[in-house]
Design brief:
Layout (H helix, E strand, L loop, with lengths): L14 E6 L2 E6 L3 E3 L9 E3 L4 E2 H4 L32 H13 L15
Antiparallel strand pairs: 1-2, 3-4, 4-5
């Protein structure tokens, strides 16, 4: 039976977090788990891949995606994140414009639904 890749969170991790109505929520990938019968840092498991850290030498234990699914936001132009030329002057102007017109939100109050 084919697995539903739409259930895999967007980004480079096996989870996605957001603040909704002032409460931080985390969506964990339904295919991610920890195997308690394996050594620490070798105990992450992905049922989408049907593989674990002990088999692939991965970082699933730290919730780093190994499947490669939904890693990038489709609205963002695909670039090589490992290396790219420095920003052009036009790109720097565009970034400055975004920062000016869309300032960062104020820092969090530190209040969380969870006592972490």
């Amino acid at each position: 039976m084919p697995k539903d890749r739409s259930k895999i969170p967007t980004g480079y991790y096996c989870y996605q977090s957001a603040i909704i109505d002032g409460i931080r929520t985390v969506q964990v990938c339904p295919y991610w788990s920890i195997r308690h019968d394996k050594e620490p840092k070798e105990n992450g498991y992905c049922s989408y891949l049907e593989r674990g850290d002990w088999e692939i030498g991965g970082l699933l234990w730290d919730q780093v995606k190994e499947c490669g699914e939904n890693q990038r936001d489709p609205t963002i132009k695909d670039i090589d994140i490992a290396y790219r030329e420095p920003f052009t002057e036009a790109e720097q102007d565009k970034i400055q414009n975004i920062r000016t017109n869309h300032p960062s939100p104020p820092p969090s109050s530190g209040i969380s639904k969870y006592n972490d």
